[in-house]
Write a structure and sequence with these properties.
Strand order of the largest sheet: 1-2-9-6
Oligomer: single chain
Strand content: 5-15%
Largest sheet: 4 strands, mixed
Number of strands: 11
Structural class: alpha+beta
Length: 499
């Protein structure tokens, strides 16, 4: 009897898997043939980065249909390739796609429940309350903090270059951005510039250093979110979680006991903790008071996104400028002209560096730190001009890296050319061919801060240093397969000279 039941269970399981893998075929959508149990992601994190996989899938499916069918493990995923449909998903019909398909577990892993992962009304209300932190006025208030850290960064670079011209720029830029974010998000002196093993820097490295199987564990939890929560799975390293929650508790206690207010992210979070109503334009949004753990989660994601993406964008920008000395000289002249025009390293001077912006944007095009945009279908959605219905709970993915490397939109896409981002060229292109920060209501809330931080870092570096390729520089860059961001394997080494 047991043998018959076993055979029956096995047969039913096989039939269910076959039925699952016929999902896209039944709907008449072009798809890539999956294999059990990985679906289409057998190489993910082992031999290929998600950006390379997405680019390959995009090339195979583009032109056949506005969407293509994929399978992440057993789950059907729609690859959105049509630019008009991308606009519809991210903006026009946002109410059907307002949540990201990113696993979080508020109970067992409080740091994972932040603005990037939150869903529904809770996300909407918190987003409305946090938005005032990132207005141009608030950016200007934080600017002196950034330049104070940049001055220290400049001194450190001078000392390092006097001893050794071969520098791993990704790490040293991450130390700069860690100190900037630590000051602006936590109001703390992280001291990463002068101590590479400072706690904030060590924790920052740990967040993006995946032990064997950790990346796959996180990916599987993302694909089976309800089951992962039922099993109490946490994706944040315990040491990292304890450190950040402890740092926030200490900061909250110190500020409240000493009645300290600053123009930074933490001050706004403290007001939300105390359920104060903050004005946002002409409206005031009410939300429930935030707990200390919820404050820690928001500060954590600001730190996480702020130090890593900006340092990545700057390091790739310098890497490309090191290979194109004429472009580097043009960027340096842009910095010198702005400083000369404004008489100092002022906020207005940084805003006036248009060619630096072009260099940053071209770096973000060629090396988008987050290479995909993922959304969950929140309720059944009928595709425009089609009978196909995307079912509630299914996932869609926008292949940002693949689109930004598509020769239909960017001629010779592997060539680094900041002139792609002159106002005239930008006006000619569909805006949905450039999505390093996403788009629509869930566009990256810290975009302005990240760009400002990158402008300052690059301006200080180009003003005083010349960058060329080092004997340790890998050309082309090799991307770390198991990283969720576009991280270069072995870092980014450059030869640096003081001017």
């Amino acid at each position: 009897m047991l043998i018959y039941l076993t055979v029956l269970a096995f047969t039913l399981a096989v039939l269910w898997v076959r039925k699952r893998y016929s999902y896209w075929k039944e709907r008449g959508i072009p798809y890539l043939e999956p294999s059990f149990p990985a679906g289409n992601i057998r190489e993910l994190g082992r031999t290929e980065h998600i950006s390379a996989l997405m680019q390959r899938w995009y090339k195979e499916l583009k032109g056949k249909s506005p969407i293509g069918g994929l399978f992440f493990l057993l789950n059907p995923v729609a690859l959105v390739m049509d630019l008009d449909l991308i606009k519809t998903v991210l903006v026009k019909d946002f109410q059907y796609f307002h949540d990201r398909s990113v696993y979080y577990n508020e109970k067992d892993d409080p740091l994972s429940a932040h603005l990037f992962t939150m869903e529904g009304t809770k996300w909407k209300n918190l987003r409305a309350k946090l938005t005032p932190t990132f207005t141009s006025g608030k950016m200007k208030m934080m600017y002196p903090t950034i330049t104070r850290v940049a001055d220290e960064f400049q001194k450190l670079m001078t000392a390092v270059v006097s001893e050794n011209n071969e520098i791993e720029m990704k790490e040293i830029l991450a130390r700069f951005t860690t100190d900037v974010i630590g000051n602006c998000a936590f109001g703390l002196e992280c001291n990463s510039l002068h101590d590479p093993e400072a706690e904030f820097r060590r924790m920052g490295r740990k967040i993006f250093t995946f032990a064997n199987g950790q990346f796959i564990k996180g990916f599987i939890a993302q694909q089976f979110r309800s089951l992962a929560r039922l099993l109490h799975i946490a994706v944040t390293d315990k040491e990292v979680s304890d450190f950040f929650i402890g740092a926030v508790k200490d900061t909250v206690k110190y500020r409240e006991e000493n009645k300290i207010e600053r123009n930074d992210f933490m001050s706004l979070l403290l007001k939300l903790k105390n359920a104060e109503s903050l004005e946002d334009g002409n409206d005031a949004h009410k939300i429930d008071p935030l707990t200390v753990e919820e404050i820690a989660a928001q500060a954590f994601v600001f730190f996480l996104a702020g130090f890593e993406t900006s340092s990545t964008a700057m390091s790739y920008c310098l890497y490309e400028l090191a290979q194109n000395i004429d472009l580097q000289n043009k960027a340096r002249k842009c910095v010198e002209d702005a400083f000369k025009k404004h008489g100092s390293v002022s906020y207005e001077a940084i805003q006036d560096m248009h060619y630096i912006d072009q260099c940053i944007n071209e770096s973000l095009r060629k090396y988008p730190p987050i290479p995909t945009v993922i959304r969950t279908v929140s309720k059944d959605y009928k595709l425009p001009n089609s009978d196909v219905v995307l079912q509630q709970g299914s996932s869609i993915v926008v292949p940002v890296y693949a689109i930004q490397h598509d020769p239909e939109y960017y001629t010779d896409p592997e060539r680094y050319d900041p002139d792609r981002f002159t106002p005239d060229q930008v006006a000619k292109r569909n805006p949905y061919t450039f999505l390093p920060f996403g788009e629509g209501p869930r566009i990256c809330i810290g975009m302005r801060f990240g760009i400002m931080q990158a402008r300052v870092g690059l301006a200080y570096l180009l003003k005083d240093f010349r960058f060329t390729l080092s004997s340790k520089t890998l050309v082309p860059v090799k991307i770390t397969p198991g990283s969720p961001i576009l991280a270069s394997e072995g870092g980014l080494w450059l030869h640096v000279e003081k001017l």
